[in-house]
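Sanity check

After download, print the first record. It should look like this:
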Amino acid sequence: MKHKKKKNFAWRVIKLTLLISIGMLMMYLIIYGLSNPLSLIENKFVKRGGVDINESILDGCQNLDLFNSAKCLHKNVGAIYGYNISNVGRDLTFEELKQQGGVCTHYSSLYYEAGKELGFYAEEVVIYMDDYTGHIFTVISNADGYCLLDGEIIECFKFVDGKSVK
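Expected C-alpha cells:
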C-alpha cells in the first residue's frame, strides 16, 4: 500500500513539473515575441501591409521607363517623408503617414505598392543589424535594371552586357 502511494505522489510531482515547465516556456515565448521589435518587420510589413497607396504618389510617374519612374516616386515620397519612430508597428492611412510620419516599413510598403501599380517587379528586402534591430527597403526592377528605394535614398543600376552599371 505504501509503495502505491509513493508511486502516485511521484507521478503527481512529474505531472506538476511538466505543467510548470510548459507554462514557463509559453511565458518565455510570449514575452520574447512581444519584446522583439524585429518581429514587427517580419510579421507585419513584409506581408505587404503598412500603408495604403494613394494616387498622388503615382502623379507624373506613369508611362515612364524604370529609372524615371523611380526618380518620380522618390520625389513624390520625399514630399511627404517624415521619420517618426513612435509609429513603429502601426498600420497608417496615407493621410496619417503624411501628417505623422513613419518608419522604414511604411515607406518601403509605399514604394512596393507604387512600383507594382506602375507595372514593375517589386521586392521588399529585410536586413538585420542584430537580433532585435532590422531595416527594410524596396527594390523595383524590369529587364532594363533595378532601383533601390530606401526612404529618402534612391540608387539605380542598368543592366549592360550582363552586369549592373550605375
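If your output differs, re-run the checksum step. Summary of this record's structure: The radius of gyration is 24 Å.
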